[in-house]
Amino acid sequence: MQTQIDQYTAEVNAFHPANADELEAFRIKYLGTKGLIKDLFEQFKSTTPEEKRTLGKVLNQFKQLTEARYNELKERFESEVSNSKSDIDLTLPGEGFTVGSRHPLQLVRNEIIDIFKRLGFVVAEDREIEDDRHNFSALNFPPEHPARDMQDTFFIEKNGHNDVALRTHTSSVQVRMMEQGQPPFRAIMPGRVYRNEAISARAHCFFHQVEGLYVDENVSFADLKQTLFHFVQELYGDGTQVRFRPSYFPFTEPSAEMDISCTICKGAGCNMCKYSGWVEILGCGMVDPNVLENCGIDSEKYTGFAFGMGIERITNLKYVIRDLRLFSENDVRFLRQFKTEVI
């Protein structure tokens, strides 16, 4: 037995594994439940008392040697693996990363806000869930008025005159502003609005608006026309032609729709402008005196104008985008095209 221990001791000291698999085989051979050390302890039980006094110490020393050798080799392998993973060649060039960009609607929204801010307009925002008064009644929509049919509404609660709905326009922000203060008002109201419409390339159930309001003494339609003319020249460039057509809106009188010369075909005619050379971009008009009175403003002393535009329509013309659905589909291939302003 002493000879066996000496032989095994020499093998343990001389063992140098090439990989982790060989080290595991070593552990099983010597330290496993059916290994050589286990076998030696079984033989040790049948030795004489005199041999036990000598062999017991030697056997324990061999077991400790084998365990120490195994732990040493195991730590060495783990250290080598760790070092290989953490080695970094600092001379290599850095890896680039993808830079995001603003959404096209956000780009155009910011540009519109900047233009009107230079004209002295402030930005006003408010809730998207509105009651009937602020969304309809205060804006000259009586309960049975046919103009309510112009806007397909997402109602949340139907309570007669206290209906609650997702706002159909940001005009509700104008009402709250006039109710809570006194003229002069000069503000724009950007925000998301909702209408129960079939989704297509030209329409969506939610979209974005920027509405404007200017109320003061002696405000005229000429002020409205010059303000919007300046806005168009700033947004689309000098030389963009403008025309106003009579229209109807319950909350303005007189009312008009404003067209610009098509920025895609330059007035020659294309499918975007339906070959007319003109594209309608917003509605506008003088604030109806009833709306002023509904908000507690003296319509004999003050006048004002209001306008509203869809940001999607403005963006379509600016970036030649022909499908409204692209704005809300989160297609990275589409969004990557707009690198004007990176995050």
Describe what is shown at a glance:
It is built from eleven helices and ten strands. With 343 residues, it is of the alpha+beta class.
Notes on the protein architecture:
β7 and β8 (252-261) form a beta hairpin. The chain is elongated. The protein has eleven helices and ten strands. It is of the alpha+beta class. It folds into two domains: 2-84; 104-335, BirA Bifunctional Protein, domain 2. The model has no long low-confidence stretch (mean pLDDT 87).
Helix content: 25-40%
Helices and strands, in order, run as: HHHHHEEHEEHEEHEEEHEHH
Give the quaternary arrangement of the chains.
single chain
Overall mean pLDDT stands at 87
Number of separate strands: 10
CATH architecture of the largest domain: 2-Layer Sandwich
Which CATH first-tier class of the largest domain would you pick?
Alpha Beta
Cα distance, first to last residue?
77 Å
> Which structural class matches the secondary elements?
alpha+beta
Determine the CATH topology of the largest domain. Answer: BirA Bifunctional Protein, domain 2
Dominant shape? elongated
SS summary, helix count: 11
Number of domains: 2
Q: Please state how the strands of the largest beta sheet are arranged side by side.
A: 1-5-6-10-9-8-7
